[in-house]
Write a structure and sequence with these properties.
It is a single chain. The protein is 58% helix and 15% strand. It has 162 residues and is of the alpha+beta class. The chain has a four-stranded antiparallel β-sheet with strand order 1-2-3-4. The longest helix is centred in the first third of the chain and has 28 residues. Helix 1 runs parallel beside helix 3 and helix 2 packs antiparallel against helix 3. It has one domain. The model has no long low-confidence stretch (mean pLDDT 86).
């Protein structure tokens, strides 16, 4: 049964979103300050590296090679609209479960951080390189991971809690 959303719940979700935002901004700044661009720092051999890459595209590097002058503007507008939708769902829904609230908070913090980077710099810094042998996953950052985990919370609620 959904629990009624109260000010405490919203405050907790806001703190989570702010924590994700701050942690992502701090980690990106640390990577930019300490790892030269395109350099690799092994963390767990044969599994995890830190790298310094700049992504002017969307998630997973989509459209990063696009020469369109409108690419960044479109990404900013779409991100802003999606953020407004997330905020609207959290603010207006009085029967939001904790799992959904947590998912939306994670999405909000990560999306807001990446949006700020796109507005300020026209790109985001990605630095987590997970791989097995020669198979590398797309390089990502804390904001990206937060968005994916948050979406996982929402999917979990849809599949198992309704």
């Amino acid at each position: 049964m959904p629990t009624r959303v109260n000010r405490f719940s919203r405050a907790v979700w806001a703190v989570i979103a702010i924590a994700i935002f701050v942690a992502d901004q701090v980690t990106k700044a640390a990577v930019e300050a300490s790892i030269p661009e395109h350099s690799t720092v092994p963390v767990v051999p044969h599994f995890l590296n830190l790298v310094h890459t700049k992504n002017a595209g969307a998630a997973f590097g989509l459209f990063s090679e696009s020469p369109s002058a409108w690419k960044t503007v479109v990404l900013i507008v779409v991100s802003s609209l999606l953020l407004a939708m997330v905020i609207g769902v959290v603010w207006r829904n009085q029967q939001l479960r904790r799992v959904a609230g947590m998912g939306l908070a994670l999405i909000l913090g990560g999306a807001l951080s990446n949006l700020l980077d796109r507005v300020r710099f026209g790109r985001v810094v990605d630095f987590v390189d997970v791989y097995f042998r020669s198979y590398h996953w797309y390089t990502f950052n804390l904001a990206d991971a937060s968005i994916v985990v948050g979406a996982g919370f929402l999917v979990f609620e849809l599949l198992f809690l309704d």
